[in-house]
Amino acid sequence: MSTSTNRARVRTLLATVRREGGIWTTRRAQDVYRPLGIVQRGTARRDLALLAERGHLVAVPGHDTAYRINQARDAA
Prior knowledge:
There is one protein chain. With 76 residues, the protein is mainly alpha-helical. A hairpin with a 7-residue loop joins strand 1 and strand 2. Helix 2 packs across helix 3. The radius of gyration is 12 Å and the shape is globular. The relative contact order is 0.18.
């Protein structure tokens, strides 16, 4: 996939996370991607980690690879 396709995919995920809120797991991200024809677990996992690395998401304490929106960043 091209870089622009990857950016669009991650932007789609971020917009959905912001709209729906809650806890985000790889499975939940896959549910967003499935209608786009993307079913790879690794893609969803990497995209969530990327959003966390960029400060959009924070890890949920006590959960392995679960994230939520970073309220501090979105409030700024």
